[in-house]
Amino acid sequence: MDVAQISLFKRIVIASLVVTFHSFLTAEDGTFEEMVRKAEAGHTQSQYRLGVAFKEGEEIGQDNYLAIKWFRKAAEKSYPDAQYELAMMQLSGQSAHVSLKEAFKGLLAAANKGHVESQYRLGFTYANDPKVERNEIEAAKWYELAARQGHAKAQYELGQAYQKGKGVRRSNDLAAKYYLMAAEQGHLDSHCELGKLYTYGINFKQDYGEALKCYRLAAIKGHTESMYRLAWAYGNGWGIEKDHKEALVWYHRAADNGHAMSQYNIGWAYETGQGVAKDYAKAVTWYEHSVNLDLDLAQAKLGSIYYYGRGEVEKDYGKAGKWYLLAAEQGDVEAQYYLGFMYYRGQGFAKDYQHAHKWFELAANQNHAGAQYNLGYMYEIGLVFKYRNYVEALKWYNKAAMQDNADAQVKLGYMYCEGHGVSKDYVQAYAWAYLANAQSQNSYLIKRLSKRMDAKEINAGIVRANLLQKHLAGLKNSNAN
Fold first, then answer.
1. Quick one: which of 78, 124, 190, 344 is 20 to 30 A from 410 by CA?
2. Model pLDDT for residues 2-20, shown as the tens digit of each residue
3. Which of 35-39, 89-93, 241-245, 296-300 has the least mean pLDDT?
């Protein structure tokens, strides 16, 4: 006989012989058998309670089919708790042959009766469920209704909405208000968000000490991001004396919970010896853990360790190239630069000037001075298109020189000295050579120009060099700010 054909009462009798159900029952329910009789007689609350019993299955064995059956009977009588449970099972795909529209209708009906969990779930569905057209205004509306009833998660989500301006006008005041309301109920995400507001001085006066209290409270209770932020505070001395060892304790706790940035920072600690003895092999292990969690930041670090061969980790251009390529494709400027260098030198790849040019250009366009210099050099000697292009060379040397790259300043000096890509200008050539000489003691070009220039021209070159130096210093300050 099919199980579905066995009468419900017989199934209950069999189950009651194996386990007791007293922990589930209330005084109003009476015995389990009485609850079943009431449900079959049409008692709405008993139908709902029976649905819960079969859904949770702690005492009689889980049965989603029967759970849905009894939730539906109670929901048809507009019982909000049942409408909510039925809708949630339908939305999660546990009920076959039910349309999304029907499930949503039940959730909406319960929410309109003031059912707080339904209101929260409606907000969450409008904001996050890929099966439903995103509507941030509706999401915020339902979050607010649930928040007014004291729903901590709804208060947190409403805080997020106000902080990010999703469905409501951006307001850090209201974001902080709702985070505080949720935090007072022990909501850990809200404690962490309040910590951020104190950390960055948003809505509150910047106060690392208060931020630390928020992070610590949540971290102690197992909140992963708060563990990470507490570790960061220890590592940087924010609101507490700097302590790299204590930082590592919290990074490890967060890393054990799968926090990629904490895993990266543990790798960085082993690479640099912050709070622990240097160990490049362990650094590689932790960097790889973070990469496995889709943190691209570690790819360039792994490339560097393998490129140079650090500590007990042997130099391996093949592995370096693999990691640099992954990082470069994600836009990492240092990885793009090194990848260009590896193609230029034939390290880990066949020598390929076109590929070298490609990666140098990508890094140069992100303002990498070394890449700009190398690009200029390739154009100057004709490695890109098999002919010299002094105009392009001059352009890239100039960009690198303006970042105070001494090699580029020397090259720029030579270009002006010889009239390559520009009219000869000994004064300008001397100015760039003078700046480069101050950094690298490269005096050959200075001596060469001194033989071609009189004292007045040399003095003019020095004056121009001083003006250039002031201009470069201004650019540095501007970029720093």
1. 344
2. 433 334 333 333 333 233 3
3. 89-93
What is d(CA 155, CA 288) in angstroms, rounded to the nearest whole number?
A: 37
Q: Which amino acid, 181?
A: M
Instruction: Kindly state the tokens that stand for 165.
Output: 């301006």
Report the predicted TM-score, pTM, of the whole model to 2 decimal places. 0.80
Is 479 a residue whose pLDDT tops 80?
no
Per-residue pLDDT, 155: 98
Is residue 341 within 8 A of residue 371, CB to CB? The reply is: no
**Which pLDDT belongs to residue 316?**
98
Q: Token match 């409606």: residue?
A: 122
